[in-house]
Amino acid sequence: MTKHADIHASLWGDNALPLRPASQVMKLERLGSLHQSRLSFMRTLVRRIFRERWKIELATLDLNEQGFGTVVYEVQAPDGFFSFVLFSEQLLSEERNDRVIATKWDLTMALVEGQVTPEYVVQLKQNVPKQEAGRVDSRVFVLSRANRSARNFDYVVEQLASGKQPEVAKIAEVGYLYRTTAVYGSGKLGMADWEKVQQKFPDFARPFASEMFVCFMLRNFSLLQVEHIARHRNAATFTPMRHDIKRYFGIGNSTGLGMAPYLVNHPLLINQWISMRELALARIRALGAITAYTQQLTVELITRAVQYTHETITEDASQTALNKIVVQDMQKLKALVTGGFNSWDELIAYSEQHCSLQGQEMLVSIMLEIYPDLVDELEDFHCSDEFLDLDPLMPLQQLKAVIEQRYDWALAIDFDAEGAKETYWYRSEEKMEPRLGSIADVEGKKKAMALAVGYAVRKCYNMLVEYIVNNPEHITARFMVAHPKLRGIVRRIQSMNRSVYGDIQANLLDRDVLPIHLLRCKLAFFGVSKFDPRSRLWVRNTMFQGAPLLEDIGKPFIDDWFMPLTPKQ
So which domain of life are we looking at (predicted)? Predict the structure, then answer.
């Protein structure tokens, strides 16, 4: 049996493993409680780089004493050769803006197919620093920019230049030297689209692999740059940064509503991501007795989770309260595990009765960490063909039954309740980002994005029931002729009926909807850590903190940067 056939049988075969139901997994608040895991895209990318021993070398280092200039890394992966080109420019503090509408940045960068000539670098330099205002060709397949951390960058340079190491406690407050403000791919601004990347560049043929690689390279450059500047500032006293402190630096990121629509607009892909995580959990829950070693490792990881959560600094009162609850959850689980437990099912059942959603999902991530042999192979199955096909021959009675079974959650929502349809989503022309509006804005509502799947299903169902009264024997095609505007939602209903997960079971029009749950869900699949909500609409986070460095490639590798802890000073 092939790997694909084995995975398919595990999900849908006669002896399929018991997965958690969509009614539990796809609730918005639970999706917003996910944590990074072994299957997160940053983790799978780093494992691949180190397993395949990618050759990543500095080909051009043209920086002045202040660290401004051009840098080119050459990347030899198993199936292709690439260049990572980066431009560092002097930026006045008043020009530094993390918003999408900014026009200048400390760093801009591009991931490019093949080797770059000096002439091509000049062409890139004329466009890459302009970002949206520039244009690149299809050799480029990721474009990004980043700004320095005002609290860390100059401080770290001064410490190294004076022969000291940066204070770990200070780094823990802001665990990065740069923060990205956008990472673009998939055909934007003239770049190669996802279809080309997937077919032509096997090394990056996983969702967001190339975007994550750019952030990984940015992190490594940030460490090179601070040492470069510090060395030139005072060569006599300069001291390189300690390796373990280097690893504790990640890359900062602020994520707003721009990421939220993705989870709604790519349901089959999201279904695949969730399915792999749930299949990994199901494989572990199917195991037999718990060994003494497994028990000890579980205690160690729970202890690490407690310390990691203590070290997660946030200014948001609600997240601070949630983190305290997670610590309490972990302490409950630690007491149970230390006393001995008979099965993973027992531990999961206990967590669902006594722990918060974030505590429950932290336990899931811990369990996945313990069994790499059962989990890691699933990283090859995160892609999905995203075709929502309309079945015109489906009898309407069957379509009605699909809605009643698959979308019972949507039919259970009272859309006539106060505030149930008060919010709409739209794209701001001024800010170039998705925004939330109120139905009081009648003109704005005309530009609403089609993200309210639950409400669309409810309206479709009402029209379908009414139509069936007079046409009980009709097929879907006849219904589409009568209601052509319903074609999109009917196509989605029929297509999603062939999957387990994928539809977020929430009313995204509700007055009190929390979009931050959507953001956290996608970021958890990316592999970020240290969530710091700034409102219900955007969240700060850290990427690649604790990950190995470029100089570690070729050395013995242990994938052990789950929940990275502060190094000893």
Answer: Bacteria
* 398 φ/ψ angles, rounded to the nearest 5 degrees: -70, -40
Q: Are 333 and 306 in contact (CB under 8 A)?
A: no
Per-residue pLDDT 10s for the chain (569 aa) are 567 666 666 676 656 788 999 999 999 999 999 999 999 999 999 999 999 999 999 999 999 999 999 999 999 999 999 999 999 999 887 777 766 667 899 999 999 999 999 999 999 999 999 998 899 999 999 999 999 998 899 999 999 999 999 999 999 999 999 999 889 988 888 899 999 999 999 999 999 999 999 999 999 999 999 999 999 999 999 999 999 999 999 999 988 777 788 999 999 999 999 999 999 999 999 998 899 999 999 999 999 999 999 999 888 888 899 999 999 999 999 999 999 899 999 999 999 999 999 999 999 999 999 999 999 999 999 999 888 999 999 999 999 999 999 999 999 999 999 999 988 877 766 555 666 777 666 666 667 777 899 999 999 999 999 999 999 999 999 999 999 999 999 999 999 999 999 999 999 999 998 888 999 999 999 999 888 887 777 788 999 999 999 999 999 999 999 999 999 87
| Other residues' Cβ atoms within 10 Å of the Cβ of residue 412 | 10
Q: Assess whether 51 and 190 both reside in one domain.
A: yes
Q: What is the DSSP string of 253-314?
A: EEE-GGGHHHHHH-HHHHHHHHHHHHHHHHHHHT--PPPHHHHHHHHHHHHHHHHHHHT---
* Residue matched to tokens 């490639």: 553
- On whether both 366 and 460 belong to a single domain, the answer is no
Q: Note whether 375 and 488 are same-domain residues.
A: no
In angstroms, the CA 311 to CA 485 distance is: 51
- Cα separation, 189 vs 133, in Å, equals 9
| Same domain, yes or no: 59 and 191 | yes
Distance CA 569, CA 392 (A): 66
Secondary structure class of 563 (helix, strand, coil): coil
Residues 155 and 236 in one domain: yes
Q: How far apart are CA 263 and CA 521, in angstroms?
A: 9
What are phi and psi for residue 336, nearest 5 degrees?
Answer: -65, -45
What is the rounded CA–CA span in Å between residue 360 and residue 16? 23
Q: How many domains does the chain have?
A: 3
Residue 273 forms part of a structural domain: yes
One domain, residues 225 and 246: yes
The verdict on 432 and 476 lying in the same domain is yes
Encode burial over 314-329: b for 16+ CB neighbours within 10 A, e otherwise. bebeebeebbebbbeb
Question: Of 496, 524, 556, which marks where a domain is finished?
Answer: 496
- What the block records as the tokens of 434 is 């998705």
Residue ending a domain, among 496, 515, 538, is: 496
Do residues 40 and 524 touch, judged by C-beta distance below 8 A? yes
* CA–CA separation, 511 and 515 (whole Å): 11
- Asked whether 46 and 216 are in contact (CB, 8 A), the reply is yes
At CA 40, angle to CA 37 and CA 45, rounded to 5? 125
| Cα separation of the two ends of the chain | 52
Cα 223 to the chain's mean position, in Å?
Answer: 23
Domain region containing 243: 41-256
